Amino acid sequence: MEQVDKRILKTKTKIDSTLFALCKKKVNFETLSAPKLAKIAGISRQTFYRYYLSPKQVIVTMIDKHLSEFQKDFRLQGLTARSMTAQLMKTWQQRAEVFELVEWSNTRQEFIQRLSLFNQNIAHQNKITLIDEVAICNVYAAATYMFLRAYVLDNAWSENEATDLFLHLTNNLDKIF
C-alpha cells in the first residue's frame, strides 16, 4: 500500500474541510478562486497549486476518489443491476456532503462523465459489447445522477422505491449487464 505523507494529507483535509464549510454557508462558488480558498483554508497559494489547479478540481478529485473506491468494492462481489443501483444509492447517501458539493459547485457534468466511464467499465467487466457504448453509458450516467440527486438530496423515495423505479426506467440497465 502506498504511504501518504501526513503533511500532504493534512493540507488536503484542510482544503476539503474548507470547501464543505463554504458549501454549508452557501458562499457563491463562482466567486471562489484558488487564492481565496487557500487563504480561508490557512495555506499558501503555492501549496494549493502544488495539488490542484482550481477549487473545481478539488471536487472532481473527490468524485474520482469515491467512484474509484466504489468500483473497487464491486470487484470484490457479484455484480447485478439491482445490487449496483442499491449500492450506489447507499454509498452516496453516506457521502451526501460530497453530493452537496457537486450541486453547489455545478460539477454535475463532470460527475456524469465519470459515471459514464464507470458504466463503461461495468460493461467491459461483464463482457458486454455495445454498438454505441459511449452514448448508452452517457444516458445511464445522466439517469443515475438524477436519481441519485433526488434520492440523496431530496429524499424523494425509499431505497426500494428508487431502485425499482430506476431499474424499470432503464430496463434493468440491460445494456451493461
Q: Would you kindly provide a written description of the structure presented here, covering whatever features stand out?
A:
With 177 residues, this protein is mostly helical. It is built from 9 helices and no strands. It has helices spanning 6-24, 34-41, 45-51, 55-75, 81-94, 96-105, 108-125, 133-152, 159-169. α1 (6-24) crosses α2 (34-41), α2 packs across α3 and α5 (81-94) packs across α8. It is globular, with a radius of gyration of 18 Å. The model has no long low-confidence stretch (mean pLDDT 90).
Give keywords.
72% helix, 9 helices, 177 residues, mainly alpha
The sequence of SSEs as H and E is: HHHHHHHHH
**Nearest-integer average pLDDT:** 90
Structural class: mainly alpha
Total helical segments:
9
How is the main sheet built?
A: none
